[in-house]
Amino acid sequence: MALPRRLLPLFLRRGGRLPSSPAPAPTPVRALSTAALPADALAAEEEDDSITIKGVRISGRPLYLDMQATTPVDPRVLDAMLPFYLSRYGNPHSRTHLYGWESDAAVEEARARVARLIGADPREIFFTSGATECNNIAVKGVMHFYRDRRRHVITTQTEHKCVLDSCRYLQQEGFEVTYLPVRPDGLIDVAQLADAIRPDTGLVSVMAVNNEIGVVQPLEEIGRICREKGVPFHTDAAQALGKIPIDVNQMGIGLMSLSAHKIYGPKGVGALYVRRRPRIRVEPQMSGGGQERGIRSGTVPTPIVVGFGAACEIAAKEMDYDERRVSALQQRLLDGIRSKVDDVVINGSMEHRYAGNLNLSFAYVEGESLLMGLKEVAVSSGSACTSASLEPSYVLRALGVDEDMAHTSIRFGIGRFTTEEEVDRATELTVHQVLKLREMSPLYEMAKAGIDIKSIQWSQH
């Protein structure tokens, strides 16, 4: 007689055993990429790992060098998450039984781990669905709360699209927004920022590490200016968390947006830091049950929050090692490309930069053609949120990069699990593809012949 499905968990908990069945064959471990597979294994891999996009069959696993878009989950993070999917699955807001209590304790431990990584109090951490939601709550929430006295926001032209769109939303509501320009190296002029602050300025929002060019803004200087002027300072630190040292008190940060999937944690969870002393008030942007002290309603997803906490704990222990290793790989990639290809431009400051982000422009090469040619390397031409657009990157245009060079940019993202072999293979493929495209480019021939291409008057037909 078959056991009813609803009684199966109780049956197993009380020591019941199901009839034995043959153990399933173990799933073979597969590499993340096929770069180093032998020929016979590569053929089998391609056979069962191919997809078709717009009629084009793509097979195999390309090298992954797009760490600014997302990172793979660290196996240690996955290990921490699994119990909260399989056995400790209670709602952390259930206050009347063990399942709820243990989930709530796990959420609070994760909150403490996130707080420790940035030097904050756990009570200042609010879990959300990700950095985009954090940025919306921070920018709109602060200005809506102080709308009677503060009607002015300052941000930069190179912010993430969700910050820029939140500012445009506020403009439609009658708020004023100042979009600060950046220098050719991607850094803001802090003196210009200080001059832009007005008595009615309610928020300054400047990204910590730019997602497209990896430039690290002078957070401590910005925080000092904002503290002196009495203005809350918000920073989108999705690309900075776990990669550069952050201390919210030393840097004078009032609000900070964080994301788990940029630091080898799960997708779908982020955290907003909101300073308690001096207290910054935020108007919630979503109605609901009042979870997360009313700032972000909705059931806190225990497994991925636990994963976020585990990722932060690992980052705190291994940040220095990761930084040294990633820096060496970045230099290896850059030297390898520059040794064989000329007219390569680094976009953004090299001195003030997170090493895992290397944004290069290759003169006389169309970036989209280069991307299509690099089928064995997963890279990007810019932000993953806007890279489907054929328009040149607004970040590069803000740096003063001309349209032709902006169209040739490629962003290489290096991370914790990137290997020297992958970097060498990516170098080889990039060099080959750039040289191949330049051989077909009449513009490259003209430039090498000493002709000033910009001086040519092209006829219209």
TrEMBL record:
Which is one GO molecular function term here? iron-sulfur cluster binding
User: What are the residue boundaries of the Aminotransferase class V domain, all occurrences included?
Assistant: 64-425
Which GO cellular component terms are attached?
Answer: cytosol; L-cysteine desulfurase complex; mitochondrion
Q: Which InterPro entries match?
A: Aminotrans_V_dom (IPR000192), Aminotrans_V_PyrdxlP_BS (IPR020578), Cys_deSase_IscS (IPR010240), Cysteine_dSase (IPR016454), PyrdxlP-dep_Trfase (IPR015424), PyrdxlP-dep_Trfase_major (IPR015421), PyrdxlP-dep_Trfase_small (IPR015422)
Name the cofactor(s) required for activity, per the record.
pyridoxal 5'-phosphate
Give the matching Pfam families.
Aminotran_5
For this protein, what is the EC number?
2.8.1.7
One GO term under biological process is: iron-sulfur cluster assembly
- Keyword list, A-Z: Iron, Iron-sulfur, Metal-binding, Pyridoxal phosphate, Transferase
> Which domain of life, per UniProt?
Eukaryota
Protein name (record): cysteine desulfurase
Source species of the chain? Triticum aestivum
